[in-house]
């Protein structure tokens, strides 16, 4: 399933460019490579597919992805009109989504990716730093409970 996930992500993100002017697929690939097992790697490579492309959870279900993977992807997909705080609350409700969001956020917090950050970039970094701490605390709880 990992190979299928990679193929779907590469095709779905084809032509997308990130804020640093690089091929967008490099970001999901970096997130995927942080994964400690196939499930985390699948969620990592697909983490932006539903949010940023025409691919839907139903399409991924038809491709044979597990309900565990689909549930995490649903939690890690920000819905239109949803506040960032409400989105993070949804992420934090799912241990796998929380773990992948940590990988995602840490990749997005790499300031060297954007050579000339704008005030908007700086504001985004500050927002991510705030929520990064919240995610780390929740992951500690999940680790103590043996959920990850």
For the structure shown, list the relevant keywords.
mainly alpha, Hypothetical protein af1432, 9 helices, 148 residues, single chain
Structure write-up:
This protein has 148 residues and is an all-alpha fold. The protein has one domain: Hypothetical protein af1432 (Orthogonal Bundle). The chain contains 9 helices and no strands. It has helices at residues 2-12, 26-34, 38-46, 49-52, 57-62, 67-76, 84-92, 95-108, 119-144. Helix 8 (95-108) packs antiparallel against helix 9 (119-144). The longest helix has 26 residues, at 119-144. It is globular. It starts with a helix and ends with a helix. The relative contact order is 0.12.
Secondary structure: elements and pairs:
Elements: H1 2-12, H2 26-34, H3 38-46, H4 49-52, H5 57-62, H6 67-76, H7 84-92, H8 95-108, H9 119-144
Helix pairs in contact: 1-3, 2-3, 2-8, 3-6, 6-8, 8-9
Brief sketch in words of this structure:
The chain is mainly α. The chain contains nine helices and no strands.
Strand pairing plus helix content: what structural class?
mainly alpha
Ends apart, CA distance between termini: 21 Å
How much is the average pLDDT?
95
Major sheet: none
The CATH homologous superfamily corresponds to Hypothetical protein af1432
CATH-defined architecture: Orthogonal Bundle
* Proportion in β-strands: under 5%
CATH topology: Hypothetical protein af1432
> Spans of 5+ residues with little confidence (pLDDT < 50)?
none
Radius of gyration (CA) equals: 15 Å
Helix content: 55-70%
The 3D shape can be described as globular
Number of helices in the DSSP assignment: 9
Strand segment count: 0
**What is the name of the CATH class?**
Mainly Alpha
């Amino acid at each position: 399933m990992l190979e299928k996930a990679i193929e779907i992500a590469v095709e779905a993100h084809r032509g997308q460019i990130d804020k640093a002017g690089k091929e967008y697929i490099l970001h999901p690939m970096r997130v995927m490579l942080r994964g400690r097992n196939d499930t985390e790697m699948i969620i990592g490579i697909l983490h932006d597919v539903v949010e940023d492309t025409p691919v839907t959870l139903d399409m991924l279900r038809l491709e044979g992805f597990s309900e565990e993977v689909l549930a995490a992807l649903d939690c890690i997909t920000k819905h239109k009109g949803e506040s960032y705080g409400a989105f993070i609350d949804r992420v934090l409700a799912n241990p796998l989504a929380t773990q992948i969001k940590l990988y995602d956020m840490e990749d997005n917090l790499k300031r060297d990716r954007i050579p000339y950050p704008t005030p908007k970039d700086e504001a985004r970094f500050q927002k991510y730093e705030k929520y990064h701490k919240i995610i780390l605390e929740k992951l500690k709880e999940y680790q103590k409970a043996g959920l990850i």
